[in-house]
Amino acid sequence: MSAAAPLAPATRLLHAGAPTLRGGSGPVNVPVVRTSTVRFENSAALADHQHRRAAGERVAAYGRHGLDTHRALEDAVTALEGGHRAFLTPSGLSAITLVLVALLSPGDHALIADSVYSPVRRVDATLLRRLGITLEYFAPSAQNLAAKIRPNTRLVYLESPSSLLYEVLDLPALTAVARAHDIPVATDNTWSGGWFHQPLALGANLSIQAATKYIAGHSDLMQGVVVTDSPALSRRIASAHEALGLTVGADDAYLALRGLRTLPVRLAQHQRHATQVALWLQAQPQVARVFYPALPTDPGHALWQRDFSGANGLVSFAFADGVDARGAEAFVDALHFFGIGASWGGYESLALVAAPERLREHSAWTGTQPVVRLHIGLEDPQDLIADLAQGLHRVSREKAPPAVAEPA
Ligand SMILES: *Cc1c(COP(=O)(O)O)cnc(C)c1O
């Protein structure tokens, strides 16, 4: 295949990392190359590989570095995010930890959007604090960021839209402030799967994804990826990646690449279904507010329209007054087609009551009502709506439960 004009993103995504034909033919998909070690023809070839790797080249001198399957996935994700290099990690959380550990040293300060994926705070409390690194959580506006930067601030860490409530950040404004102070910006891009939001083009320097979610797309693997925007950042991430011994199995790399090929069609369908559900939820008396940036009533809608070309399957909603935490749990328990569980991004629907302590971490959240996060899967949306309707009906009936003596 040869191309003169720049390829459209969908075409690039389908062909990035495809195996080259050898002797006139070859498979469509890259083979799964499983290995723990790499064999060399002679000592000189080994030394050559080691030198090239030390100089920053993407060659494997050992199984941990990954071979063809890993390279193909890295190439495809790099193309997807429009970056310089991609680094694979065993989970989304390890991708986040990799960035924090690679870019922060004892005495450093980092500013973290207060609406990020909550386990980031655990990395802070259990690891970074012991290393003498200070993370400060801020309400993620550009103005607030400018006010909080210290002489020792070495990283700004964001996520847009945020976890649970999907607050859309003004990424170009935030990255402009950081750039004026020469501070790198990392952002969690899991929500878009890298497909309808390109943070590196909007000024971020590192884009992180839990490939566990939409890239994999089938709830069958754990994986993370970090994409850098420059050779300098790639070198810093590469050395920490090596030091931490991060690697993923070739089978999982293959599954992630297989998922990636259908990312655009899956996301388009998730968006169609989620939009129908979000609009329906908005009209229900038991629902006070629906969180979905593609809805014109969502506070982040204008920024979403400017910086995103689509939305995913995540829809959260807050119950109207009169439904308490027990009612929210009864609602989730009553659903037939929604699994009760964490994570999202697979083909299937999920429901989870958001923990109030997680919501309170978001400065943008001032509510007191229970919030349910739905992942709208690829089932027929009318079946999902019928299921949600019977769940809400049950909540209405159980609104005022009779007083029951609790066992001591
Ligand atoms: C799930 C998730 C992660 C963590 O990914 P894992 O693969 O589960 O470790 C990170 N960021 C966001 C926004 C997520 O939703």
TrEMBL record:
Domain of life of the source: Bacteria
Catalysed reactions, as listed in the record: L,L-cystathionine + H2O = L-homocysteine + pyruvate + NH4(+)
Coiled coil: none
A molecular function (GO) term: lyase activity
Enzyme's top EC category: lyase
Cofactor(s) this protein cannot do without: pyridoxal 5'-phosphate
InterPro entries reported for this sequence: Cys/Met-Metab_PyrdxlP-dep_enz, Cys_b_lyase_bac, PyrdxlP-dep_Trfase, PyrdxlP-dep_Trfase_major, PyrdxlP-dep_Trfase_small
Keyword hit for Lyase: yes
Record-linked SUPFAM superfamilies: PLP-dependent transferases
EC number in record: 4.4.1.8
Keywords from the UniProt entry: Lyase, Pyridoxal phosphate
A Pfam family the protein falls into: Cys_Met_Meta_PP
Family according to the record: Belongs to the trans-sulfuration enzymes family.
Protein name as annotated: Cystathionine beta-lyase
Source organism: Acidovorax bellezanensis
